[in-house]
Specification:
Blueprint: H1 2-28, H2 35-42, H3 45-50, E1 52-53, E2 56-59, E3 64-67, E4 81-82, H4 88-92, E5 93-100, E6 103-112, E7 120-124, E8 130-131, E9 136-137, E10 139-145, E11 169-177, H5 178-181, H6 188-191, E12 196-200, H7 211-215, E13 230-235, E14 248-253, E15 255-256, E16 264-268, E17 279-285, E18 293-299, E19 302-304, E20 309-313, H8 317-326, E21 333-335
Parallel strand pairs: 1-6, 2-19, 11-21
Antiparallel strand pairs: 2-3, 4-14, 5-6, 5-10, 6-7, 7-12, 8-9, 10-11, 11-12, 13-14, 13-17, 15-16, 16-20, 17-18
């Protein structure tokens, strides 16, 4: 009888122990990682250091574009200047990091006013969001506003975002023109559609911050600008004498690219590779209480070898349609005008 009772007690004890182990395992299981957290973790200091600018230069003789050999790129003597004016533009302009295939890239971008609940929006170049050759959207798309330095000597396996001033935000949807996506290459067709919107999830240092509330934002104009409009363009150039760690700008009178049949804008400027996707403003306030505010009407798109100008697409009905779609998009989208 005693042996029987002993067996029952032992069996019951084993059940309790097994249940405790199972409970411990369940409690120890980490919560499911969000897509935002996964992308933030993906961009380690080592990967950030490997990212190269994705910019294009046009050959007027062959009418073809090719990626800039960015380490040696130079655009002549029309110099860019470090922006020291502060204000909204210094926080709302930033750098985009993304992956295409096995390569890591960097571009510039800006926060634009979206007037949509629970959502912020970033505007950049189409080639900073979509691989026009392999016909696929960029992966691991990350925006770092108010980017001002490139830390050195940090743990290469640690997240880069921890070292930033405002933190990082990720995109829940990228929206590009179908005309751009189906152009087959970065060519004369793609370049006039070279813009993209990114719908941004909450992020920042807390992981729940609204991007536009942290940085401010700029309204977007979908109307063409007149020749000789006073224009300001910004970006993070990383080639030639620039290191990609300072917000730079050019200011001048707006022109048009005659070699593209006046379909794109032109402005004297020496912003180099890394500046793609940076904002163009007119009007823009450079001094006073509202310094750093303006209306965005284009983005940095391409240059010519040895030239002294930056070029950008003209916004219009297609751009406006993409902007409206991006307000509610829940997945990457190729926009067709009228859809």
């Amino acid at each position: 009888m005693k042996n029987k009772l002993l067996k029952i007690v032992v069996a019951a004890s084993l059940v309790i122990i097994a249940s405790a182990i199972a409970t411990t395992r369940i409690e120890a299981k980490s919560p499911k990682q969000s897509e935002h957290d996964r992308i933030v973790k993906f961009w380690t200091n080592a990967r950030i250091a490997r990212a190269i600018p994705r910019d294009f230069v046009r050959n007027p003789k062959t009418r073809s574009f090719k990626p800039i050999q960015w380490k040696n790129s130079s655009m002549g003597v029309a110099s860019a200047t470090t922006w020291t004016g502060g204000g909204e533009v210094s926080k709302s302009t930033g750098k985009v990091f993304f992956q295409m295939g096995k390569n890591y890239y960097v571009c510039s971008a800006s926060v634009v006013t979206e007037n949509a609940p629970n959502r912020s929006m970033v505007l950049t170049a189409g080639h900073c969001a979509y691989d026009e050759v392999n016909k696929d959207f960029a992966d691991n798309w990350l925006f770092i506003p108010s980017y001002y330095e490139k830390p050195v000597g940090l743990n290469p396996d640690a997240s880069f975002c921890a070292s930033t001033s405002l933190g990082c935000w990720t995109a829940s949807a990228l929206v590009v023109s179908k005309e751009y996506a189906t152009a087959g290459a970065f060519n004369d067709i793609a370049v006039v559609h070279d813009y993209a919107f990114a719908a941004m999830t909450p992020g920042g240092k807390s992981g729940n911050d609204d991007l536009a509330q942290k940085t401010g934002s700029h309204p977007v104009s979908f109307s063409n600008r007149d020749p000789d409009s006073d224009t300001w363009i910004f970006g993070y150039p990383a080639a030639s004498r620039y290191k990609g760690n300072k917000l730079m700008y050019c200011n001048g009178l707006l022109g048009f690219d005659s070699r593209m049949n006046w379909a794109t804008y032109s402005l004297p400027c020496s912003l180099t590779a890394g500046s793609s996707g940076g904002p163009w403003f007119s009007p823009f306030t450079s001094t006073g209480t509202n310094t750093g505010t303006g209306t965005q009407f284009s983005v940095n798109s391409y240059t010519y070898g040895g030239s002294k100008a930056m070029h950008g697409p003209q916004f219009g009905p297609e751009t406006e349609g993409m902007y409206e779609v991006a307000k509610t998009a829940s997945a990457n989208t190729q926009y067709t005008t009228g859809s």
